[in-house]
TrEMBL record:
Lineage: Bacteria, Pseudomonadati, Myxococcota, Myxococcia, Myxococcales
InterPro entries per UniProt: Kinase-like_dom_sf (IPR011009), Prot_kinase_dom (IPR000719)
Molecular-function GO term, any one: protein kinase activity
Domain of life, source organism: Bacteria
Organism, scientific name: Cystobacter fuscus
Protein's name according to its UniProt entry: Protein kinase domain-containing protein
Domain Protein kinase: from-to ranges: 71-340
């Protein structure tokens, strides 16, 4: 029996409506398509799909392939400890924008593979408990060996690109060398603690809450945590790698034990905030421009004295930051980070 299939007249995406359906909605562009009663053979459908997925037919002259997907590379946007991060888009129409981490040294392939497993696990674990929060985590798309292009044979990991998250805490510190407005640091820290609270409740630790792994949303009050190659389940977690450029951000107890805990994540988050405030994350000291109550809270959290023994440490501290902010600044206001 012939399989009934159609192509969307709006975007040419292949569709497969139910057997008795009179209409179907295109999952790519949202167009409602009325079903023509004439049948399309499987062979014709497969040919149409192959043509649709051919980058050359969409005007692309170069692309990199991972698995069955073809991706048109964009600019290099970051250079991490073990990989280079490129912007890219699916080489067809309609397209999809992603970030592609390309491993530089095959010796680190286990870290990239572990990051993929963690991202997939977290989608399932957090999706059951807090599905609305999934958009705050990197969305895994594909991983595997690159075919084609200058990096053929290297390992790559692809995640969906979320618009607006443009600046790492590294970049913020370079632009605001004397420190950001302390009111900005309040929502920055609260966003990080919210992410950590959800991770910890799901039974995971991040293990590398560092300036290059924190992205600030341009013009809004958003912070995204990335860099999950050191993430692990709380039970049995071990530190798989150390970012040597930011070794001072790791608590000494973590470097000694090599066993990351929720407390370690929280301590590193406080050190990152101290850094963007123009302070010294190693000695946990802050400039006088930071109100005393906020400075004390940050200093205590950075050395592990704030919330010690709390069962839901990250969320408890998040609430405490809100209380301190209300006492110092009054009602919450909109204070976006200004970056060039």
């Amino acid at each position: 029996m012939a399989e009934r299939v159609v192509k969307c007249p709006q975007c040419n995406a292949p569709l497969a409506p139910g057997r008795f359906a009179r209409s179907t909605v295109c999952g790519y562009c949202g167009t409602t398509v009325q079903i023509d009663p004439s049948a399309v053979s499987v062979a014709r459908y497969r040919q149409a799909l192959q043509e649709w997925e051919d980058p050359a037919r969409h005007g692309y002259s170069q692309w990199w392939t991972v698995g069955t997907g073809h991706w048109a590379p964009g600019p290099l946007i970051a250079r991490g400890e073990i990989s280079d991060v490129y912007a890219a888009e699916r080489a067809r129409r309609p397209t999809e924008r992603i970030l592609m981490k390309v491993l530089r040294d095959p010796e680190h392939a286990p870290l990239l593979e572990h990051e993929w497993r963690m991202l997939v696990e977290l989608q399932a674990a957090i999706g059951n408990e807090a599905p609305a929060f999934l958009t705050h985590l990197p969305q895994p798309v594909a991983h595997g060996t690159l075919r084609g292009g200058p990096y053929e044979g290297r390992q790559a990991l692809l995640v969906r690109q979320t618009p607006g998250y443009l600046h790492t805490f590294e970049a913020v510190r370079r632009v605001h060398a004397s420190g950001v407005d302390p009111r900005v640091s309040v929502w920055m820290w609260r966003r990080i603690l919210e992410t950590l609270a959800v991770l910890h409740r799901a039974g995971y630790v991040h293990g590398a809450v560092l300036p290059p792994h924190l992205l600030v949303q341009h013009g809004e009050h958003g912070v995204r945590l990335v860099g999950f190659s050191c993430a692990d389940r709380v039970k049995g977690a071990r530190l798989r790698a150390i970012c040597t450029r930011y070794e001072d951000f790791y608590p000494a107890s973590l470097l000694d034990s090599q066993r990351p805990t929720p407390m370690d994540d929280v301590r590193m988050s406080a050190r990152c905030i101290i850094s963007v405030l123009g302070g010294d994350p190693v000695r946990a000291t802050l400039p006088r421009s930071v109100p005393g109550a906020l400075a004390t809270l940050l200093e205590r959290a950075a050395v592990g004295e704030e919330g010690e023994g709390e069962r839901d440490l990250a969320w408890t501290l998040r609430e405490r930051v809100g209380e301190v902010s209300a006492a110092v600044y009054g009602h919450p206001g909109f204070h976006p980070l200004v970056m060039p």
